[in-house]
Amino acid sequence: MDIFQVVGTLVCTLRVSGLDHCSLRVLRDAKGKLQVATDPVGVRPGNWVFTVNGSAGRYAMGDAKILTDLTIGGIIDDWETEVIPVSATVAS
Amino acid sequence: MDIFQVVGTLVCTLRVSGLDHCSLRVLRDAKGKLQVATDPVGVRPGNWVFTVNGSAGRYAMGDAKILTDLTIGGIIDDWETEVIPVSATVAS
Amino acid sequence: MDIFQVVGTLVCTLRVSGLDHCSLRVLRDAKGKLQVATDPVGVRPGNWVFTVNGSAGRYAMGDAKILTDLTIGGIIDDWETEVIPVSATVAS
Amino acid sequence: MDIFQVVGTLVCTLRVSGLDHCSLRVLRDAKGKLQVATDPVGVRPGNWVFTVNGSAGRYAMGDAKILTDLTIGGIIDDWETEVIPVSATVAS
Amino acid sequence: MDIFQVVGTLVCTLRVSGLDHCSLRVLRDAKGKLQVATDPVGVRPGNWVFTVNGSAGRYAMGDAKILTDLTIGGIIDDWETEVIPVSATVAS
C-alpha cells in the first residue's frame, strides 16, 4: 500500500459507467507524481492517506463492480517509529 | 488510476484477436513516457484522461474478453484543489 | 499497454513446463530496459510492438494456462498524432 | 517479492472496514521509498523483511477478505551469496 | 517477464506458512535492484534467469497455493539478436 497526500477532487463529466457516483481524489506522492483514487472514506485536501491497489481496491469500495484500480484505505493519523540499531545491515 | 494526455491513435494491422474493433490510443504521462490504452469513451488528441489498469480495465470496456491491461476511464474537465496547510507534515 | 522494440529471441533450454513451445522475445523500451514476452503474433527483430501484461496477457496467448505475464499484442505500423493545443494544460 | 526494512507502525483511526484488526507496518526500501504492509508475522522496527504483493498478499494473511495489496512474508535472517564468475555476462 | 542474475539464497526462519519448503532466491536486475523469487527450476548464483510475476507466478510453482508474487521461469542460455535497421524509427 502506498502513501499519498490528497490534493483535490477530479471533475469528469464524461467517464465509464462503472465509476458512476464515485468520488475521485487526486493524490500526490513524495516525489510529486499524481494518481487518481476512489474514496470510500471521505478525505479532505491535505490529508495523508494510504491506498490499496488492484482487485483489493475494488473490494475496498464495498462493491466489486466499481471499476477502480486504486482506493483510499484510510487516513493516516501518525506513525510510531523507533530508532533502528546500526547493526541492522543485512540488506545494505 | 493514472493521468495522461492523449497524443494519437495507434495503427496496428497485425494484432491478437482479442483486441479486434478496439480503438487504441497513445497516451503520454507527465514525464513523457508513452502508453497504449483501449478507449470506450471516445477521446481526442490533447484530452487529459485518467486510466484504469489490470482486470478492472477489462471490465471497463464493457466486455471482459477484451485483452487490454489499460483502459481510459474518463476525460478530465478540471480538478478542484485547496491550499494545503503547512501543518500537514506527517509523511514528509 | 507498453511500447517496445523487438531485439531478439531468448534461448532457454531449462524452463518451467507451462511455457513449453512458446517463443520468448527480448524487448527493449525507450529507456533501454529489457523485458521478455511471449509472442502469439510472429514478430521480427526491429519491429515496434505493444504488449499486454497480467492475466490479460495469458488470455492473449489463446490458452490461459500459458505461464506468461507479458504478451505481444500487435505490431505497430504507425500512429496518427495531431498538434495538441497549448490551452490543454489541466495536469501541467 | 521485495526487500524492505521495517520503520514503524501506522496509526489510522479511520480506515476501510476490510482492514480491521490488522497491524499496518511502514516499510522503507533501499532507495528510501515508504510502503505500508499488513503483518501476519509480527515484525519489529529494524527488521529486514520480504513482502508479497497482489492477490497472493491477501492469501498470505490467512483470510482472503483482508483488503491488502502488500503483506510481509517473512523476516530475513541472512542470505548466502557466492562469488559470481566474470564469465556470466549474458545480459550485460 | 523480467531478466535478473541470481545472487544468492535467502535464509528466513520466520515466514508465512504458504511459503514452506520453497527455495527463495535473491535476484539482482541490471540497475542493481534486489528482488526475491521462488525457484521451481533449481538455479545457481551467477545464472541469468527470467521471472514470471503475479498470479502466473503462483501457477508456475506447480501449486497455486504457494504465496509468491515472483517465480523463476527459466535459465537464460543466450539470446539471438539481429542488427536492427535504422529505418525502424516509429516510436523514437
TrEMBL record, chains A, B, C, D, E:
It is found in: Bacterial microcompartment. Pfam families: EutN_CcmL. Keywords: Bacterial microcompartment. NCBIfam families: carboxysome_B. This is Ethanolamine utilization protein EutN. It comes from Thiorhodovibrio winogradskyi.
